[in-house]
Amino acid sequence: MEFLRHAYRRLAELARELAKFGTIGAVAFVIDTGGTNLLRFGVGLGPLSSKVFATIVAATFAYLGNRYWTFRHREQSGLAREYFLFFVLNGIGLLISLLVIGFVTYTLGLQDALSYNIALLTGTALGTLFRFWSYKKWVFLPGTPPDGPAEAVPGAPPSRPATPNSQVNGHMYLLNKTSEENAPPPGPR
Question: Residues 106-114: contacts with CB within 8 Å, 24+ apart?
Fold first, then answer.
């Protein structure tokens, strides 16, 4: 029964994060796609540079939204570290989009707005999958557990309270333990 409660809590937490990430992503998507199309077809920039400039603006918005709303409950490991990693990972996501756009535009030779936007949407979708995974893994780290007893995880070995230890003659001895628990391992000396 405890396993089901734990699984439900994890699933509910993931659903909340995905909903918030999706909301921030939707607004960033409008900034990115609208900005890319404005720069590409309104201003006349190239297909790749339009995407780069719009992505920089959208990524800045997404960082702030994800840091201060989606993942605000996660540990803050330093603004400079997070910001740097966020933009490196966004750069990889951007590279994924640029590869798709470049393939459609330059390899397939499709220059029309419809082909460009299909490539833009495909690249954005692939980049978004990478970004969600990578943000959780490297940028917005899990929060530290509050002080107090930790919940048991089903299937995990029981945790032992921290016990002071001492090392003598190459053997580790736990203080406040019986002599049987502190006996050196059998074998040649």
Answer: 113/37, 113/41
Q: Tell me the backbone φ, ψ of residue 4, rounded to 5 degrees.
A: -65, -40
Q: Where are the alpha helices (DSSP H) in 38-78?
A: 47-65
Give 73's contacts (C-beta < 8 A, 6+ positions apart): 143
Residue 101 phi/psi, 5-degree rounding, is -65, -45
Q: What is the pLDDT of residues 66-96, one digit of tens each?
A: 888 887 777 666 778 878 888 888 899 999 9
- The per-residue pLDDT of the chain, averaged, comes to 79
What region, left, alpha or beta, does residue 152 occupy, with left being phi > 0 and alpha being psi -120 to 50 degrees? beta
The helix or strand, by DSSP H or E, that contains position 165, with its residue range, turns out to be: strand 165-168
In which residue are the tokens 């490297």 written? 138
How would you label 61-71 residue by residue, b for 16+ Cβ within 10 Å and e otherwise?
ebbebbbeebb
Task: Name the residue with tokens 């992505």.
Answer: 55
Among residues 63, 71, 67, 72, the alpha carbon closest in space to that of 31 is found at: 63
Angle between helices 113-134 and 2-37 (to 10 degrees): 140
Given this model, what pLDDT does residue 82 score?
Answer: 78
Mean pLDDT score, 158-170 = 47
Residue 25's pLDDT band (cuts 50, 70, 90): confident
